[in-house]
């Protein structure tokens, strides 16, 4: 019974070398003639984007492993939760892959302590799931609350601070920025959907609810702060 | 660990160069090919460094060739702190110029931002080999160069190490070598940097015809780098497998009793 649940995360491959290179081809942005190219980003703007990609990649890595932990513990014992968890996990994997690709393409260094994020997230997911399914949902609720807020902060900054000037004097967002904003918006919506799902599946009935959710929220805030920097 | 990430942090997010202009085309150099500074350093590096080495004589000779006054010498090195042992700021700038321009030369035909028809990504070995080829003209002065680069101090932390990291990063990015999203990203670059420095040290002592021994040595070092990324990932994979298996074992023991 339990062997079945282990085969899932193992088959995903926990650390996979990316074999596909994502260097830029001139075709992808063919409409960018020298004259409507944007003026250089400032050092501060580049540094912020660097942090955004690193922290979001680490965050989605964590989310992926939280769901892996929950699935590992709950899937076989609570069949009715299996499709729900599986759906959310699939979305996290998509989020994680998206940021992985971006990290390679935009040449951002990943967080230095990825092994720690993986282990910590897995323990958080499986640990709360071992308490009860409701505690696992309370964990999801807390994580998604913080992540949703975090994505909203990023969207605010990206929308306000990245109006760039072209060489011909007109202003706007570059394709690169618009697509980053669209991606984060989509992911924020997905996370808030996870939040609703968690509440729907009785996260509020978890004991001890306040202790659990507030504790996990603090852990997430510290993790975000660290992943931006290290 | 913080010092490490500070050195690596100098390699930041790269905005699409097709959509955004770059602040400097030879970053971290703050002057472009049109500037006098660039012309003097380029001339010195190509014409005089092969015979004189990395020193003020090479710079003075090229100032003479270009009919420029000797006062330019202090302008050239203005971005380097003068407190460095023995080496003048201008010579440090010459060394920096060598490191940066050779790195850019390596990927000139591969970078879509600098060529309209980028070539197919080569193997990592090819780029590594090519970079060592570029050292041939200055090879007699490699010992002196490497010792200047390794003196502890500001130049090492601000220029020599970050530039070495950028070289490794470029070699991975522009080759068809698979890259990583986790800790293997670091281990690969660090191993590559070590392989490059030891190959340069070897080259400095190499007396074989056309540096054949150096290239043989480099190929072997590089072989270990590619294996290292795999080793790391296999180890991590194995530890996860073990962890999950032990948790399962513990659970089954609990339910049985
Ligand atoms: Fe996510
Ligand atoms: Fe989520």
UniProtKB/TrEMBL annotation, chain A:
<feature type="binding site">
    <location>
        <position position="194"/>
    </location>
    <ligand>
        <name>Fe cation 2</name>
    </ligand>
</feature>
<comment type="similarity">
    <text>Belongs to the COQ7 family.</text>
</comment>
<dbReference type="Pfam" id="PF03232">
    <property type="entry name" value="COQ7"/>
</dbReference>
<dbReference type="GO" id="GO:0006744">
    <property type="term" value="P:ubiquinone biosynthetic process"/>
</dbReference>
<dbReference type="GO" id="GO:0016709">
    <property type="term" value="F:oxidoreductase activity, acting on paired donors, with incorporation or reduction of molecular oxygen, NAD(P)H as one donor, and incorporation of one atom of oxygen"/>
</dbReference>
<comment type="function">
    <text>Catalyzes the hydroxylation of 2-polyprenyl-3-methyl-6-methoxy-1,4-benzoquinol (DMQH2) during ubiquinone biosynthesis. Has also a structural role in the COQ enzyme complex, stabilizing other COQ polypeptides.</text>
</comment>
<feature type="binding site">
    <location>
        <position position="60"/>
    </location>
    <ligand>
        <name>Fe cation 1</name>
    </ligand>
</feature>
<keyword id="KW-0472">Membrane</keyword>
<keyword id="KW-0479">Metal-binding</keyword>
<feature type="binding site">
    <location>
        <position position="95"/>
    </location>
    <ligand>
        <name>Fe cation 1</name>
    </ligand>
</feature>
<keyword id="KW-0496">Mitochondrion</keyword>
<dbReference type="GO" id="GO:0031314">
    <property type="term" value="C:extrinsic component of mitochondrial inner membrane"/>
</dbReference>
<comment type="subunit">
    <text>Component of a multi-subunit COQ enzyme complex, composed of at least COQ3, COQ4, COQ5, COQ6, COQ7 and COQ9.</text>
</comment>
<comment type="pathway">
    <text>Cofactor biosynthesis; ubiquinone biosynthesis.</text>
</comment>
<keyword id="KW-0408">Iron</keyword>
<keyword id="KW-0503">Monooxygenase</keyword>
<dbReference type="InterPro" id="IPR009078">
    <property type="entry name" value="Ferritin-like_SF"/>
</dbReference>
<feature type="binding site">
    <location>
        <position position="191"/>
    </location>
    <ligand>
        <name>Fe cation 1</name>
    </ligand>
</feature>
<feature type="region of interest" description="Disordered">
    <location>
        <begin position="17"/>
        <end position="38"/>
    </location>
</feature>
<keyword id="KW-0999">Mitochondrion inner membrane</keyword>
<dbReference type="InterPro" id="IPR011566">
    <property type="entry name" value="Ubq_synth_Coq7"/>
</dbReference>
<dbReference type="GO" id="GO:0008682">
    <property type="term" value="F:3-demethoxyubiquinol 3-hydroxylase activity"/>
</dbReference>
TrEMBL record, chain B:
<keyword id="KW-0496">Mitochondrion</keyword>
<comment type="similarity">
    <text>Belongs to the COQ9 family.</text>
</comment>
<dbReference type="GO" id="GO:0008289">
    <property type="term" value="F:lipid binding"/>
</dbReference>
<dbReference type="InterPro" id="IPR012762">
    <property type="entry name" value="Ubiq_biosynth_COQ9"/>
</dbReference>
<comment type="pathway">
    <text>Cofactor biosynthesis; ubiquinone biosynthesis.</text>
</comment>
<dbReference type="Pfam" id="PF08511">
    <property type="entry name" value="COQ9"/>
</dbReference>
<comment type="function">
    <text>Membrane-associated protein that warps the membrane surface to access and bind aromatic isoprenes with high specificity, including ubiquinone (CoQ) isoprene intermediates and presents them directly to Coq7, therefore facilitating the Coq7-mediated hydroxylase step. Participates in the biosynthesis of coenzyme Q, also named ubiquinone, an essential lipid-soluble electron transporter for aerobic cellular respiration.</text>
</comment>
<dbReference type="InterPro" id="IPR013718">
    <property type="entry name" value="COQ9_C"/>
</dbReference>
<feature type="domain" description="COQ9 C-terminal">
    <location>
        <begin position="157"/>
        <end position="229"/>
    </location>
</feature>
<keyword id="KW-0809">Transit peptide</keyword>
<dbReference type="GO" id="GO:0006744">
    <property type="term" value="P:ubiquinone biosynthetic process"/>
</dbReference>
<keyword id="KW-0446">Lipid-binding</keyword>
<keyword id="KW-0831">Ubiquinone biosynthesis</keyword>
<dbReference type="GO" id="GO:0005743">
    <property type="term" value="C:mitochondrial inner membrane"/>
</dbReference>
<protein>
    <recommendedName>
        <fullName>Ubiquinone biosynthesis protein</fullName>
    </recommendedName>
</protein>
């Amino acid at each position: 019974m339990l062997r079945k649940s282990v085969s899932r995360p193992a088959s995903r491959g926990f650390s996979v070398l990316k074999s596909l290179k994502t260097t830029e081809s001139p075709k992808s942005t063919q409409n960018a003639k020298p004259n409507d190219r944007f003026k250089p980003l400032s050092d501060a703007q580049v540094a912020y984007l660097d942090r955004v990609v690193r922290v979001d990649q680490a965050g989605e890595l964590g989310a992926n492993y939280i769901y892996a932990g929950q699935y590992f513990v709950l899937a076989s014992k609570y069949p009715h939760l299996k499709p729900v968890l599986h759906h959310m996990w699939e979305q996290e994997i998509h989020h994680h892959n998206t940021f992985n690709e971006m990290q390679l393409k935009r040449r951002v260094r990943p967080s230095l302590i990825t092994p720690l994020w993986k282990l910590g997230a897995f323990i958080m997911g499986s640990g709360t799931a071992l308490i009860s399914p409701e505690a696992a949902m309370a964990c999801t609720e807390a994580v998604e609350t913080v992540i949703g807020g975090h994505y909203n902060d990023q969207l605010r900054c990206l929308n306000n601070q990245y109006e760039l000037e072209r060489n011909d004097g007109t202003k706007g967002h570059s394709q690169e920025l618009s697509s980053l904003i669209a991606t984060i918006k989509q992911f924020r919506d997905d996370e808030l959907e996870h939040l609703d799902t968690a509440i729907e599946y009785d996260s509020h009935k978890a004991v001890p609810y306040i202790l659990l959710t507030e504790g996990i929220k603090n852990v997430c805030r510290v993790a975000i702060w660290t992943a931006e920097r290290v | 660990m913080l010092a490490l990430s500070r050195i690596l942090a100098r390699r930041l997010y790269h905005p699409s160069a097709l959509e955004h202009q770059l602040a400097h085309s030879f970053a971290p150099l703050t002057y472009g090919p049109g500037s006098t500074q660039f012309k003097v350093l380029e001339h010195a590096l190509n014409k005089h460094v092969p015979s004189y080495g990395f020193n003020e004589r090479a710079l003075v000779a090229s100032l003479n060739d270009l009919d420029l006054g000797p006062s330019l010498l202090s302008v050239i090195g203005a971005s380097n702190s003068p407190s460095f042992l023995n080496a003048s700021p201008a010579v440090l700038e010459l060394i920096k110029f060598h490191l940066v321009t050779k790195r850019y030369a390596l990927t000139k035909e591969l970078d879509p931002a600098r060529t309209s028809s980028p070539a197919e990504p080569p193997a990592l070995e090819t780029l590594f080999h090519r970079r060592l080829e570029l050292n041939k003209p200055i090879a007699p002065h490699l010992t002196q160069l490497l010792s200047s680069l390794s003196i502890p101090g500001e130049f090492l932390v601000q220029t020599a190490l970050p530039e070495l990291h950028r070289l490794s990063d470029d070699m991975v990015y522009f080759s068809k070598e698979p890259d990583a999203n986790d800790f293997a990203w670091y281990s690969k670059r660090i191993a590559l940097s070590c392989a490059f420095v030891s190959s340069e040290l070897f080259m400095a002592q190499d007396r074989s015809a056309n540096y054949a021994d150096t290239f043989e040595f480099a190929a072997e070092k590089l072989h270990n780098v590619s294996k290292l990324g795999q080793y790391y990932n296999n180890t991590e994979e194995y530890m996860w497998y073990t962890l999950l298996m032990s948790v399962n074992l513990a659970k089954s023991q609990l339910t049985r009793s």
